[in-house]
Amino acid sequence: MVRTSERPKKTDPSKVEVGEIDTRAPFQSVKDAVSLFGEVAFSGEKPTIKKASPLSAEKVLVKETRLHLAEKELDKLKGRLQNAENTKAEALVELEKAKRTVEQLSEKLKVLTESKEAAIQATEAANKQVKLLEEAHSGNLAVANGFHKEDSDSGREEYANVLLELNAA
């Protein structure tokens, strides 16, 4: 008879006897395997901590050159900013001068307009007076010529003065 050894049935898969084959499912991803075994399992060497490699003289020189160029550019930009601020300040001063000039000219224009209106009213009044005098003169020649002549001459002089003022304004 053949003797068969009965093996006990396993209930706990973590208890693996020597010589048995693991029939569990393989890893789902490489990431799972790396997290379980770590890098050491793949490389066969001890993990080494990578130190930052010391910068070579060329790299330091390149970085210093870039820094120097950036500082020069910054200085140029600061100079341009200062120049722009100065120009702005000068423009604001000129703007204020122009505003004051506009205000002064507006005030002068207002005064001249009022003067012109007054001169126009005076001219109209003088014209009315001249018409009245001419009507009186033409209708009443029998009255003394001296009185009418003086009124007429003074009216004409006043009229001429008002016209001169009006033209000057």
From TrEMBL:
<dbReference type="GO" id="GO:0009903">
    <property type="term" value="P:chloroplast avoidance movement"/>
</dbReference>
<dbReference type="Pfam" id="PF05701">
    <property type="entry name" value="WEMBL"/>
</dbReference>
<dbReference type="GO" id="GO:0005829">
    <property type="term" value="C:cytosol"/>
</dbReference>
<protein>
    <recommendedName>
        <fullName>WEB family protein</fullName>
    </recommendedName>
</protein>
<keyword id="KW-0175">Coiled coil</keyword>
<feature type="coiled-coil region">
    <location>
        <begin position="67"/>
        <end position="136"/>
    </location>
</feature>
<dbReference type="InterPro" id="IPR008545">
    <property type="entry name" value="Web"/>
</dbReference>
<comment type="similarity">
    <text>Belongs to the WEB family.</text>
</comment>
<dbReference type="GO" id="GO:0009904">
    <property type="term" value="P:chloroplast accumulation movement"/>
</dbReference>
